[in-house]
Sequence to fold (396 residues):
Amino acid sequence: MFSNELITQFDRLKTPFYYYDTDFLNKNLNILIHEANRFGYRLHYAVKANANSRILQIISDYGFGADCVSGNEVQKALENGFKPEKIVFAGVGKTDEELQLAIDKKIFCVNCESLQELEIINSLAEICNKKVRVALRINPDIDAQTHAYITTGLQYNKFGLSLQDVDYIIKNKEKYSNLLMDGVHLHIGSQITNLKVFRDLCGVVNNVLHYLSQNNINIQHINLGGGLGIDYSEPENQIPDFQAYFNVFYQHLTVKPWQEIHFEPGRAVIGQAGALITRVLYVKENGSRKTIIVDAGFTDLLRPALYQAKHKIKNISSESGEMLYDIAGPLCETADYFGKGLLLPETKRGDLLVIYSAGAYGEVMASQYNLRQPAGKYFSDDLLKSKKHKISTLKI
Ligand code: LLP
Fold:
């Protein structure tokens, strides 16, 4: 990912900045699409992972749909080439204005997360005399075996409808006369690395589909969310194993020929295509520890501070010697560390460090705490003479 030519270019740029490798992104997208096409699966890119316009345009060019969680995401997806009929909108707290926007823009489907929301959508649809497609987001009570903060499918997590809610909906179907209720949506969490978890999800989905069909609710769209994890320890050129992932669903999901299967990958699409580049400001001794202070902080990349996430870090300016370092940002917060006890070559002021796997949930989660300036962003095809990619598109 980082040739000498690129490092020379980096040296001229103001740090910190995000660097996106569009060649890698295109390669990843081509493989993802190839695998999805083999199974006939539909893909909605989870915009929340990275909503940079240029990234969105690359992804929408491949024919992806968009999975959005706010009115602004819906708007931005539309502005960047995603077709309304391929946009889905989830989220536990959609405002009436956001729902109205979804109705006005005629997006594909609203993923509904509570009984109250279902009633609100129905009444908004009634006022404008429309039928609105909704998918019931069901909470399957499955442990995604990931960090607690990115687990969404356990009973007490705030997401989705309970099975009791589904029963209520079945019994009161006629109340929702302005809704086209032909989809289910299940998303159990993010950075899932144990594929067995998805097998468990299939089991619950099979039961739910059976139950709904017994009760005369015919489901045509089955949206299985996102969640496929990436390898944070060996990130370079790592394409996620999309084939193994889809294969779990192919093997374990019992669907009828007319039912369509949708996925919403975010991290697995863009995670490894981005890195945060930061410069060493100081190297200091704290007792027995050597601490590198860099010019990026959790305002630029929150994941290590918020989820204790471990991103691989490399010094691309030095190769000599090896030493244990803690790596901290400049913010007035003790949580502002990117790593502790990491083995790096001898590091000095001015060196450039790469924090890998920052393409997903990096730029989008930035803040301006301490009145920090947002990090810059650069793309490989601007910095390097990049090859043109042959684009394959989603069949459906
Ligand atoms: N669909 C829904 C309904 C979601 O809530 C999410 C992520 C996705 C799809 C995409 O999941 P992915 O394929 O990216 O795992 N900020 C956290 C991750 C939060 C994920 C939120 N929902 C992090 O940095 O790890």
Q: What stands out?
A: Residues 46, 48-49, 67, 90, 150, 187, 190-191, 225-228, 264-268, 303, 307, 360-361 surround LLP (CB under 6 Å).
